[in-house]
Design brief:
The protein has 339 residues and is mainly α. The chain is 78% helix and 0% strand. It has one domain. The chain is globular and about 55 Å long.
Length: 339
């Protein structure tokens, strides 16, 4: 916790310093140009991207009825909000999504296993998206200083992604070895033993059609983030090509993934936009304005989602408080996802 607090404070200080250094008034003027209508449009666009992610997650859950798809869209929104809005929640996003799915009757093992697989697929498709960004940068600026570190990151990330997938498919013993660590981080979201989660992982990986479908959806969502950035910049009266916007977003998310331990990517996102934006010819004040716009969008979507989740948790707590100890601990509570 102390490390997270220190990283957050350092990130906020870096972001504040960058905004002050590159003319806060110019950044604010660029940001205000989008107007409330444009801001709502960007929020609506981003919600659609989150919905695509929710559909991809639902596709990975065996025996969960199609009518429960809205649950996964909301849970995905909460997952994203917990990671992007809560200041000290590096691992809170997946745990929050698992918990919300369980509260809506999804079996705990399926909820946990599907999130693990979904995170892996999301990371692998993000790697592909970063590759697109890299090649767009090579095409636009073949002499850019960013090319070498970006290529190195792609190689390291590819190795990490492969290792993550292999652990899921063949690392049941490894998961059990790390059970105390996992339990400490996800104790409120993962009731039961890891054996059931391992079995659920095997079931999910056996359905290659669902894996391919989820991967296709995630890749579409990643590519659409470039369209979102292009639209946001155009609404701020910043002329930029679609290819440049896609390249910026592809490499920006790669930068964020490297510093995943920094809460809210504070300072990392702002520095990343400066670095990557400059490689594609985006001035510093415009790059920082885009970053602040995304911060505001995340708050507008995330805060209501988190409040709704807490209301649901409060209702569950109240019902458990009024139930008998046998009822509160019954494994049958929360079942029914497939009916």
């Amino acid at each position: 916790m102390r490390i997270a607090v220190l990283l957050l404070l350092a990130g906020v200080a870096v972001a504040t310093g960058l905004i002050a250094w590159f003319d806060a008034d110019a950044i604010l003027a660029t940001l205000v140009a989008i107007g409330w209508g444009g801001f709502l449009l960007i929020c609506g666009f981003h919600f659609c991207l989150i919905a695509i992610n929710g559909i991809a997650w639902h596709a990975l859950t065996p025996d969960v009825a199609p009518r429960r798809l809205p649950i996964f869209v909301w849970a995905r929104l909460v997952r994203t909000a917990a990671a992007d809005v809560l200041p000290l929640s590096q691992l809170g996003g997946p745990a929050a999504g698992i918990r919300l799915a369980i509260l809506h009757g999804v079996p705990a093992a399926i909820a946990a296993a599907s999130v693990i697989v979904d995170v892996a697929i999301e990371f692998l498709t993000q790697l592909a998206y970063a590759g697109v960004g890299f090649f767009l940068l090579v095409a636009a600026r073949p002499a850019a200083d960013l090319l070498v570190p970006a290529a190195m990151w792609l190689l390291v990330a590819a190795g990490l992604g492969l290792a993550f997938v292999l652990v899921q498919r063949r690392g049941g013993r490894l998961l059990q070895r790390f059970e105390p660590l996992i339990a400490r981080h996800f104790s409120s979201a993962l009731p039961g033993k890891l054996e059931s989660i391992t079995e659920a992982l095997q079931r999910i990986h056996a359905n290659r059609g669902a894996l391919a479908y989820a991967a296709a959806l995630h890749l579409v969502e990643w590519l659409a983030t470039g369209a979102e950035a292009w639209l946001a910049l155009r609404l701020m009266n910043i002329p930029i090509s679609f290819a440049a916007a896609t390249g910026i977003e592809g490499l920006l998310y790669a930068v964020r993934s490297v510093a995943f331990m920094v809460p809210m990517a504070a300072g990392v996102q702002e520095g990343g936009y400066l670095l990557v934006g400059a490689a594609f010819g985006l001035p510093p004040d415009q790059a920082l304005a885009l970053s602040l716009l995304k911060r505001g969008r995340d708050l507008a979507l995330g805060v209501p989602a988190l409040l709704g989740w807490q209301v649901l948790e409060g209702g569950q707590w109240w019902r458990d408080r009024g139930a008998s100890p046998q009822e509160a601990q019954s494994p049958e509570r929360g079942k029914g996802a497939g009916d």
